[in-house]
Design a protein that fits this description.
The protein has about 400 residues and is an alpha/beta fold. About 50% of the residues lie in helices and about 10% in strands. The chain has helices at about 1-20, 35-40, 95-115, 145-155, 170-185, 205-215, 255-265, 265-290, 300-310, 325-395, and strands at about 25-30, 65-70, 90, 130-135, 160-165, 220, 225-230, 235-240, 245. It is extended and about 115 Å long.
């Protein structure tokens, strides 16, 4: 019995020394506080902020830039409780294909490693376990772009919606914005990570904790890299002329709740869902494309699979006689076709928005015209009443 306990203790010490690998991705529009949140979460500067745009190149769209950063044990708040590796990926602009492609390439790496006869003992699993989607604090619900992007990301990663820079909203505006966002998520059936629980199987503490976290969604995030002294104690906060917003004060921000969920209470659950559900679904889809209806395996599948890790394309109906040069050429054509479809989709969204704006403008003009007619009619009636009264008086 003692030897078994010693073996368990030795394994635990090895795991603590080795660390638990956990990958977090932050995604959202520029200016929503992603960089500040990451640096606040890690307790030091991990990602450098962008001071200002270059006026000479301000008209050039930068596109997607993926910035991975590995955070060591000393960067986290409680190294003894939290993992000592936290790869973070930051996105500066929207691009559906690039973001989804990055997520799927991590799955491709795992699938390729599983398919090898001799596996690499030092292979590193870079699958993203959770994605924080930063929503612009407008005080309203989701934009069409937010809805479309979260729908595409959810099948590949656990998506948790958050409102960045939540201190820019009043408490009533923030409550209304949370309500509208969750209504949009439910209406458009976006499968976000909603801290699932089973009343019949889970204990009361788990049910209560998950229900409380679910009630906070989307999390209101306030981050700060500065310290402010309050009652002889220094706290992370944002100083304003009208007062101080404390990052770790539950009445001011949901930062403590999301930090505890990510790095402690729900870390294992996020990893399990990623491996057992999201990755297995992707693996089934990927492998099913390599086998036709008769069970015949395409002999070029593994080459296509290796190539697919870099081009992120779905190869269908390949001729088994194609050589590698033809496959590479075909992958380029497929990528160009995918980019063209995405551009068309964005143009359609832009046209739709412009059409809706034009319709609203016409409605406003029509209402203004109606109001003017009503005012003119009321003026005529008033004038007629005055004339009638004068006539009756003279009579």
């Amino acid at each position: 019995m003692s030897s078994a306990l010693n073996a368990i203790k030795i394994r635990r010490k090895k795991n603590v020394k080795k660390g638990i690998q956990f990958c977090l991705m932050v995604c959202g529009a520029s200016g929503t506080g992603r960089t500040t949140f990451v640096n606040t979460l890690c307790g030091k500067t991990v990602l450098e902020g962008k001071d200002a745009d270059d006026a000479a190149n301000a008209h050039i769209e930068e596109g997607v830039r993926i910035k991975p950063a590995t955070v060591g044990q000393a960067c986290l708040y409680r190294p003894t409780k939290y993992p000592n590796l936290l790869p973070l990926t930051d996105y500066y602009y929207y691009s559906f294909g690039e973001i989804v492609g990055y997520l799927e390439r991590q799955y491709d790496d795992i699938l390729a490693e599983e398919s090898r006869i001799k596996r690499n003992p030092r292979f590193r699993d870079n699958r993203v376990h959770v994605l924080l989607y930063f929503i612009t604090p407008t005080g309203h619900g989701l934009r069409e772009l937010d809805i479309e992007l979260m729908k595409r990301l959810s099948p590949r990663v656990n998506v948790i919606p958050v409102i960045g820079k939540a201190d820019s909203l009043t408490p009533s505006e923030l409550a209304e914005s949370k309500k509208l966002i969750m209504e949009d998520i439910e209406h458009y059936r976006i499968p976000v990570y909603n801290f699932p629980y089973d009343i019949e199987e889970d204990d009361e503490d788990t049910v209560e904790e998950n229900a409380e976290l679910r009630g906070l969604m989307p999390f209101a995030i306030v981050g700060s890299e500065d310290f402010v002294e309050i009652d002889s104690r220094k706290v992370r906060a944002r100083q304003y002329p009208w007062g101080v917003v404390e990052v770790e004060n539950p009445r001011h921000s949901d930062f403590l709740a999301i930090r505890s969920a990510l790095l402690h209470s729900h870390l294992a659950d996020l990893k399990e869902i990623t491996h057992d559900f999201l990755y297995e679904n992707y693996r089934t889809e990927k492998l099913s494309k390599s086998v036709d209806g008769s069970g015949y395996v395409n002999p070029y599948w593994f080459y296509e699979f290796e190539l697919d890790k870099f081009t992120h394309q779905n190869y269908r109906n390949h001729d088994s006689t194609l050589n590698p040069e033809d496959l590479a050429s075909q992958s380029v054509r497929l990528k160009e076709e995918q980019l063209r479809r995405e551009e068309e989709k964005l143009r359609e969204i832009e046209i739709k928005v412009q059409r809706e704006i034009a319709e609203k403008r016409q409605e406003l003009l029509a209402r203004e015209s109606q109001l003017k007619e009503i005012e003119a009619r009321m003026a005529r009636e008033a004038s007629q009443n005055v004339n009638s009264n004068e006539f009756n008086g003279e009579a």
